[in-house]
Design brief:
about 10% helix; 5-stranded antiparallel sheet; 2 helices; mainly beta
Length: about 130
């Protein structure tokens, strides 16, 4: 997974504000922990899933952001309140939570971008929650 983040008010993601997380795909649900570098507290996040051409489908059915003992969770269709599908390369089946690449011959996999400022608002709430 390629994780992009922003600390400012824009969603112009770039390679300098990103990192990779190695995930070994499995045929069952798995929890993937993504820890941001110590000095990074993002207000927007983009997720690029698998570059592996053999990975046909990603099931994304829950996420949780946690910061200093506070957290928020979104499951199922609620995920898409905070993230939107990159329509140029991703197909979404909201009923099953499955993400697939449009072009099965390219390594560009499914990706999710922030859906407006909903994610930024929730992430900011975590920073200031006591």
């Amino acid at each position: 997974m390629h994780i992009y983040y922003k600390k400012g008010g824009t969603i112009n993601f770039n390679e300098n504000e990103s990192f990779w997380v190695r995930v070994k795909g499995q045929n069952k649900n798995q929890k993937v922990a993504i820890e941001f570098p110590k000095d990074i507290v993002p207000n927007q996040v983009r997720i690029d899933f698998s570059r592996n051409l053999e990975q046909r489908e990603i099931i994304f059915n829950k996420f949780e952001f946690a910061y200093r003992g506070n957290s928020f969770v979104a499951k199922g269709k609620d995920i898409y309140k905070y993230f939107r599908v990159d329509d140029s390369n991703t197909l979404l089946n909201k009923e099953f939570g499955s993400l697939t690449r449009k072009d099965t011959t390219t390594t560009v996999g499914p990706s999710l971008y922030p859906n407006g400022y909903y994610l930024a608002v929730k992430l900011d709430e975590l920073k200031f929650k006591k």
